[in-house]
Write a structure and sequence with these properties.
pyruvate, Sugar_Epim/Isomerase, 40% helix, Xyl_isomerase-like_TIM-brl, TIM Barrel, isomerase, hydroxypyruvate isomerase activity, alpha/beta, single chain, eight-stranded parallel beta barrel
């Protein structure tokens, strides 16, 4: 496995055009981009190539000042907004080579949950057809209710229910250890539940979302168990550094010593 940097979380204090260089200087080979929509898609592709970086994952667009602040996939009546957002995400994938798109489900407060699920199913059916054509994998990520109240799903089992209903290799779980811990879940149990359907993994330290402390919350055991759960790819660093990203990377030394990351 390899660590990848989330550009916004680790380097959000820097201007956009400096984040790629900073990630490369800190030794990252891959990056996640939360919202790569400030510039045309080709701009991001050029920036990645200039610094020898792999685009690991990006999110579908959101609008902070609208009902789409957390996406549209599960928001009833927002099919047009979802399709427009997904097309923008596809354009970024084409320009950057990013194969994983996190499909943002949305803030569903005030909506009937069954109607939200129907909207989610309809929008994902459309998105999966596009993913098959574009060779993409779509990610569904539960977000904890403390940080993201109202999000459509907050437990892995809720996202798994959607994923298994489609039974498509184009739809996978984005497993974030931080969100599981914030929900009070046992990581070993959740990994066993999600075996074989994890498409990307992220981590941060709880409760304040700084660098992970592998001695807490069963994090070291969870990362160690990932290969047995069918996952052996990128580990997304999605946290707020206490000082600088470079100074905080010593948290991962035990993973290197055990040969879990390269």
């Amino acid at each position: 496995m390899q660590l990848n940097a989330n550009l916004e979380w680790l380097y959000g204090h820097l201007p956009l055009d400096q984040r790629f260089a900073a990630a490369a200087a800190d030794g990252f080979a891959g990056v996640e981009m939360l919202q790569p929509y400030e510039q045309p898609p080709a701009w991001y592709g050029d920036a990645l190539r200039a610094h020898g970086l792999t685009a690991v994952l990006h999110n579908t667009p959101v609008r902070p000042d609208s009902p789409g602040r957390l996406g549209w996939a599960a928001v009833p009546g927002a099919q047009a907004e979802f399709r427009e957002a997904f097309d923008r995400a596809r354009a970024v994938a084409e320009a950057t080579g990013s194969r994983r798109i996190h499909v943002m489900a949305g803030d569903c407060r005030g909506h009937d949950r069954q109607a939200c699920r129907q909207a989610m199913d309809q929008n994902l059916a459309h998105a999966i057809r596009q993913a098959e054509a574009d060779d993409l994998v779509l990610m569904l990520e539960p977000l904890n209710r403390i940080d993201m109240p109202g999000y459509f799903y907050w437990l892995p089992e809720q996202a798994l229910d959607v994923i298994r209903a489609f039974d498509s290799p184009r739809l996978r779980l984005q497993f974030d250890l931080y969100h599981c811990v914030k929900e009070g879940l046992d990581l070993a149990d959740e990994l066993a539940r999600c075996r074989g359907v994890i498409g990307h993994v992220q981590l941060a330290g709880s409760p304040d979302r700084h660098e992970p402390d592998l001695a807490r919350d069963g994090l070291l055991a969870a990362v160690t168990a990932l290969p047995d759960a069918g996952y052996d790819s990128w580990l997304g660093c999605e946290y707020k550094p206490r000082s600088t990203a470079a100074e905080g990377l010593a948290w991962a030394d035990p993973l290197r010593q055990q040969g879990l990351i390269s």
